[in-house]
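Lab channel / #folding
Pinned by the channel admin:
"Please post every new chain as: sequence first, then the C-alpha cells as a reply. Keep commentary short and put observations after the output so the thread stays searchable."

First post following the new format, from NK:
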Amino acid sequence: MKSFVWHPEARVVGDDRALRAALAVPGRAFRIGGAGPQPVGEGVFETLTSGSSGAPRRILRSMESWIASFAVNAGLFGIGPGMRVAVLGDLVHSLALYGALEGLHLGAEVLLLGGMRPDRQAAALAGGAVIYATPAQLRLLVEAGWQASGLILVGGSKLDLGLRAALGGAELREFYGAAEASFITLAGPDTPVDSVGSVYPGVEIDLRARQIWVRSPYLFQGYAGADAGGAIWDQGWLSVGEMGRLEGGWLYLSGRAGRMVTVADQNVFPEEIESFIAGLPGVARVAVLPRKDARRGAVMVAVVQGDRAVEAAILAACRARLGALVAPKAVIWVSEWPMLASGKTDLVRLARELGL
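Reply from TO:
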C-alpha cells in the first residue's frame, strides 16, 4: 500500500510540527486535530469534514486515495519541486491538509498560513504561489487589500461573481467535491458560469433521481467514531446527498438533500438562492435559511452582510429570478458573520443566534 512521503526537496514555511509527527513513520496511521482515539493500521489516516451543518465528522481514508490525485494534479498544475503551495486554512480540515500533504509529497515549498490574519497571509503570498482556499478565505484576503495572482485552487463552495471579479488577476480553477469523495469535478475558464465543471480525471458520475453518485479511486473508506455520517454506498458508488443535473458534460448543483426545504409542497434548495444573491451588488456574504410559516410550512429568509441600502433590490431581483414562492420573504442584516475553522459559514450557529 502506498503511503505519504516527505519529498527530499520539500520544505515548509510555518509551524510544521503536526506534519512532521504525522509523517515520522511512513505508512503509520495518523490524524491531525479532532477528538477520540487515534486511528490504527497501516496506510490509513483521518481528516475532518467542514462541519457547516453540524459537528465535523471524522473521515477515514487510505493514503493511496489522496496519492492518486496528487499524481493527477502534478500533471494538471505542475505541482512539484521549485513551486510554492500555500494553504490558508487549519490542517485539521481536509482541504488544507490535502494541499499541504500534496505539496510535501511532490517536493514543493509549502506555506502554512492557517490562523494568520488576512493581511499577514497576503504579505506571505508575495512572490506567488499555488493557493488552496475556500471562497470565504479568499474574500478575507481581498478585503485585506490582497491583489490576486498565480493559480488558485478553490474548494468548499462555488465562487460568486463579485468575488470572481475581485480575483481577476489570478488563474482560477474551482473543484467540486466532498471530504468523503475528494475531487468530483473541475471547472476552468471555459466552464459555464452556473456549472461546477466537468468530471475530474478518473471520476465517474451517475445521476439517479437527480441525486449525484460517484465512483473513483479517491473515495473514503468510511466514517470514524460513533457518527454514522450522511454518505451512502451502493456497490462501489458513493453519494453524499448532493442533488444536481448534467448538461452537455457539465455538472450543475442544486444543493444538499439535507438542506432541502419544502415550501408549499415545492422542494427548495437554499444553495441555489445563495448563489444568486451572492452575485448581486452590495452583497458581501449571504446564507439562506428557512423560517416556519403557518400557511406554507416554511418560507426562506436571506441573512446578508453588506450594504443595507440594496435590500429592496435584493428582494425584487429574487422575485424576478426565482418566483414569489421560492424567493426570500425577508432580509436579515448582520454585522458579525459566524465562520467555522474550515472557512465556511457556521449555519447552525447563525440559525440559532437568529432564532430560525
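NK: The radius of gyration is 20 Å.
TO: also worth noting, The mean pLDDT is 91.
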